[in-house]
Give the backbone structure.
Amino acid sequence: MYQQVNCPRCNAPIAVDIQQVIDTARNPEVKYTFLNGQLNMFACQTCGLTGQMTTPLLFHDPEHEMLMVYVPLELQLAHTEQQRLIGQMVKEVMDNTPPEKRRAYMLQPQTILSYQTFVEKVLETEGITPEMIARQRKQVELLQTLARADKDVVAILLEERADEIDETFFALMQNALQAAQERNDDKQVLGLTNLQAKLYTETEVGRRLERQQMALRKFQQDVRRQEGLTPQLLLTHILANQQEEDTVEAIATAGQAALTYEFFALLTEEIEKVARTHDKAQVKRLNGIRQGLLDFQRAIQAESQEMLNQANETLQAILRAEDRSAAVQAHLPAIDEPFMYLLSELLDQAEKQGQQARYQVLREVYDLIVREAERQVPPQLRLVNDLMRAETDAEQRQILSDNAEMMTPELAEMLTMLAQEMSADRPEMAERVRALQAMVAMRVA
Ligand SMILES: [Zn+2]
């Protein structure tokens, strides 16, 4: 559900997609968004501040008969208000659970007081225990120490804590490096880059990951160099890396579009060929790979089918509505990439088959969505965009006069910040923003 909030830094209005109910029965994806720390994120288009909204959350996982709520203490809600909120979220879960699937545990949600515990309990449903989390926390500390330590200390630490340098550690290192690059923290970037290079050559995990990345690069190069991705090409690369399960998985993921009937026929042929050489170990290994890839392919198909079904349901609901504009607004959270993909495919189809009436209707929905997307941009930012697009001073002055009610100190301040941000890579633009700022400041006074 989109809610309008104000940016804690610059006070500009931001539309945030707030989700309070994480129901794995209805939408398993949301759980991963939450665990990645990406749920209820806001990004201020005006000043660039990003962060996470503090909001009550409910987690429901029927598989583990788990229903729990977290109400942040920071919100300082009165007890009755808290009860009302919890009641509302539980009702949402109930309403979306078919009667035959309702259970007693749903009537008594567990209340969790700390966010930390709430996250840990969700992680437990993924088979991730508090011990594993503690281990990861130690790894993060180790990483921070290593990135700053001098050579001798690094050598000692790598020996003493070798068991902590695993794939997770490499992933943490990669994330830390990216974050440092985004912050322009050159010192940290240098430290981490050196550490990464060292670990790739000096540890067993590092060497294995390096082999995997090389195999993946080689595969992608071949796809580009040869006539594109074919089942035969995919098979060749999978067979070449059959000893390393992770690499097979990585290649199959990158080449999933070629996991076709033809691919499996070729793989079966290959297994039969190996069987004639009586290499039982290899036959067993290839059969294992075949089964794994079949499961993988089924999972992808089910997932994309599910996404298309949902997109189609949304589209039908919008088409059925009397007021399509209102329907588009109501379904905004469901208008995602698969939805837009489906809509453009249908538009294409209607056009090619000369179905004029159908094309018109679909086109109307498409235009409504584009307009709605533009409306989501905060009005101040839209004004700044209009001003920047204006070609002459006279035009700018006209826009400023037309929007007299928006000449506020906040707008002036926003322009100052914008100019500061741009001054490094786009000095010319920054100069124009500064000139605008002066015009706005004058009108505010
Ligand atoms: Zn802001």
In short: The pocket of zinc ion is lined by residues 7, 9-10, 12, 44, 46-47, 49 (CB under 6 Å).
